[in-house]
Predict the structure.
Amino acid sequence: MVQSTTLTKEVEAAESYTARIFETVKKRNPSESEFHQAVEEFLQSLVPVLAKEPKYEAAGILERLTEPERLITFRVPWVDDNGNVKVNRGFRVQFNSAIGPYKGGLRFHPSVNGSIVKFLGFEQIFKNSLTGLPIGGGKGGSDFDPKGKSDNEVMRFCQSFMSELQKYIGPNTDVPAGDIGVGAREIGFLFGQYKRLNAFDAGTLTGKGLNYGGSLTRTEATGYGVVYFTQEMLQDKADSLKGKKVIVSGSGNVAIYAIEKAHELGATVIACSDSSGYIRDENGINVATVKQLKEQERKRISEYTTHHPNATFVANGDIWSLSADIALPCATQNEINADQAATLVKNGVIAVAEGANMPSTLDAVAVFQENDVLFGPAKAANAGGVAVSALEMAQNSIRMSWTFEEVDSHLKSIMKNIYKNASATASAYDASGNLVVGSNIAGFLKVADSMLTEGII
Ligand code: GLU
């Protein structure tokens, strides 16, 4: 009796601590809904650990974790092909360096603003911690849209962006990489400008081309990692990907390699999408065609049907209305709401793993969990990309490069460990099977304990 009253008191104290923190975050970052959402999801998971361990509140860990160490905003002026002066806004959030130099991608997309980079940077702290590698959390980008721009325009933009960003990054301080809108072409231009203003230092950026310090398997890593994670979730239930019908949203870097690996492991991916709509191909999406359209020609996904007349394109269609065993959202944040989650459940989905960052709304996650759908949250399921980025940094440091097989086998075991850690942590905190709680707590503990050791900074 006494024990349970004490426990309730401690839980109440933890709940009031997290509520207080959430209020401060909202007040200090008004109208930044994506950032609020990422913090809310995280704080909800932490109550059991905060109730058990008052030391985190005593050291103001949540107050410090939710405030970026540094937020840099800058003007990015450039000139388009017609001689017009354009101005975009550049960002880098250096969120937390408790366990290593800031690490995280750059996103170039018109939707990028302070809220988006903060939500991404905040999640990156715990994702990076889960990889087991020594990398802190950061993120950045710009509201620049590479879509429809010429290569020269993209180059001039990247050069201007890096002229400012280079003041704040370096192999031991902050190591950017790609994200939406930043692929091999952009990383090349960014690296070239960094080198021109500083020196050739391969460890400054990851996702580089193989000729100048890139790592084999980095291109494939996020997509492959999502599928390895899905495989772990299924294996725990004595199931596998063999014969499963899969929907993958998006058709960018994450989606392409998720499709490729899902097919390799015996599943059939029947649909993928871009911002104009989705394509459906019951024979299985031909990944070579998607690569050609998206990686080389930079075309719309609707073009797929000209190569495969049996497939259909649904303009502005809802990919989540299709029925499948497995759903892999690999497009962008908040692409699945509660209604769409309910439709997936009704249509028989058994597993969902997030390739994009925060693709499911809080309500959508609740729908999956209430219906016992295996749910792999982004922080855990899509950590393969940044994990191989850390392996790229390691190779750059020792001035060597590993084979595809070596890096792939590291990736596989990292994804396996993330799953095991998240699953064991969930069980240890009475939330067996809840990988959201497990990932958040496991990611938190390593960072929070390092912060305790390093003093009030
Ligand atoms: N942008 C990716 C992510 O969301 C990769 C970051 C990196 O490789 O640093 O994790």
